[in-house]
Amino acid sequence: MEFELLDVIVFVAYALLIIGVGLWVSRGKGDTSEDYFLASKSLPWWAIGASLIAANISAEQFIGMSGSGFALGLAIASYEWMAAITLIVVGKFFLPIFIEKKLYTIPEFIEVRYSKNLKTILAVFWICLFIFVNLTSVLYLGATALDTIIGGGDGAIFMECIIGLALFAAAYSLYGGLSAVAWTDVVQVVLLVIGGLITTYIALEHVSSDGNIFTGMSEVFEQVPEKFSMILDQGEIITPNGKDAWWDLPGIAVLVGGLWVANLYYWGFNQYIIQRTLAAKSLKESQRGIVLAGFLKILIPLITVIPGIIAFVMNTDASGLISEGVTSASFFGENGRIINDNAAPWLIKEFVPAGLKGLVLAALAAAIVSSLASMLNSTATIFTMDIYKPFFQEKAGTSEKGLVNVGRVTATIALIIAIILAPQLKSLGQVFQYIQEYTGVVSPGILAVFMLGLFWRKTTNNAAIWGVLVSIPIALYFKIGPNGWIDSPFFITWPFMHQMMATWILTMIIMVIITYLETGGKIQEKSIKLSKDLFKTGPIFNIGSFAIILIVAMLYAMFW
C-alpha cells in the first residue's frame, strides 16, 4: 500500500494542528525565564503525565522496541513496566526534594548539594549528551523510519526527512518554550497511543485465521510461546542474528539488577524528562502526573512490542525460522543480516490502509517531534541557567527577555549540529544499542553522585567529583572484556545490565571511602535535611501507586 493523497492530507492537518496549538498556548509566555523554561510553573497533572510519556516515547521505542519484540519478544517490555515502578519512586522520594529547592535544572541540584564547579562540569556533559547522542539519534531513527514507510527505505528522501523533522520541532518549541512543548504533548500522546493501537489492531487482524483480534492474539501466543517469556534463562531465546537474548535481558536482573540503574538515572535525573515535573502547579499536581505516566507506561508495550512479535510470526515458516522464501525482503540486510528494526515500518507500509496510514505516520512523527522538542528545550535550559546566567549574564547585562533569547539561539545551534551529525550514525549499525551503551557508561556514576547526595548527608564534594571521574574507567573495565578487546583473565564477561550495577555499587563504595578519608564521616554543611513530612503523599498518589505495582506484579506473574 503506497502513501496516497489522503494520507498526505491527514499528515499535513496533524502538523498544522500541532504548530497552531504550540504557538497559541505560548503566546505572551516568553517574557521571563520562568515562563519560557518552566511554563510559568502552571502545568496541571494530566499535562505533566502526558508530556512525560511524549518526551519518552520516540523512534527508539516505536522502531527500536518493535525490533526488539521481533528479536527478543515480550521480555523487552521490562524497560516499560519497570519504568512504571521507577516513576513511583521518583514521585515519592525525589520530586519533593527537587520542588522544595525550587530547581530549574538537574545540574542546579548539584550546586545546591555539592559545588558550582561540579555543576558546571555536569552541565557541559549533559549538553554534549543531548546534542551528540539524544538529538542526533532521534533524528536518525525517525528519518530512517519515515524513509522506509514513505520512500521505500533506499535513502532517497532520508536527508529531507531529517530536515523536515527538525524544522517541525523547531517551528513551535523555539518560540514557545516548555509551554508549547508540554501542551502539544497532550495532543501528541493521544495521537501516538491511537496510532499505535491502530497498527496493533490491523496486525492482529491479518495474523489471525478468522480476522478476529482476540483469535489473532491467541494464535500468536500458540505459535511462539517463548516470545512471551518475561524472565529469560540463558539460551532460552536466540535472536534471528544468532545472539543469545539473555545477554540483553539477563534473567532476574531485569527486576533487581542493572535495569534499576538505567531507570533511576533516566526518570529521576534526566533534565528533558524531569523538567515538566518541575513546572507543576504544586508537588501534588506533579505526583499525580507521575501516576498517570505510570499507567501509560504499562500500556506502551501493547503498541510497541506486540507488533514486533506479530511481524516475527508473519515472517517465519512453520518451524519458526526466517528464510528467504517466507520472510519479506525488508528484513534482509548486507551479508544476510536480519534487520529487526524494520518490523514496525514493514507492518505500517504493508497493511495499514490509506487515510489510516497518514494517521499512523502522524503518530510516529508525534513521538519523534515531541522528544526532539523536549530535548531542545532542556538543552537550552541547562546552557542558559547553568552556564550563561552564572558566568555571562552580569557582564553582558542580559535581561530576563535576553535569557529567553539566549535559550532560543542555543536550541537553534544544537539542532543544526544534530542535523549535520545524524546521517553519520548510519555507520554505527545498531543505533538503539549505541544510545543504551553510551549512556550506560556514564549513568552509574552520576546516579551514585545523586543518590548519596540526596540520602547520605556525609557525602563530600571531592567524593562526588572523584565518583564521576572514576566511574567511567570502571564502566570501561567491565565493557572491554565482553567486547573482546583484551584477552585477559582479569576482564569478566558480564551482560551489560550486570556491568551497570557493578559500576554503580563500586562507585558508591569509592565515594564512601573518600568521604571518610577526607572528613572522618562528618555531616556536610550543604547536605539535604530530610524529614518524614517531606515524603508524605496524598491518597490519589498512594492509591494509584498501589494499583500500578499490583498490575505490574500480575503481568510478571502471567508471563514469567
TrEMBL record:
One of its GO terms (cellular component) is plasma membrane. The chain crosses the membrane at residues 6-25, 45-64, 70-99, 120-143, 155-175, 182-204, 249-269, 290-314, 359-383, 403-422, 434-456, 463-480, 500-519, 540-559. One of its GO terms (molecular function) is D-glucose:sodium symporter activity. Its main location: membrane. It comes from the Bacteria. PANTHER family: SODIUM_GLUCOSE COTRANSPORTER 4 (PTHR11819:SF195), SOLUTE CARRIER FAMILY 5 (PTHR11819). Belongs to the sodium:solute symporter (SSF) (TC 2.A.21) family. This is Solute:Na+ symporter, SSS family.
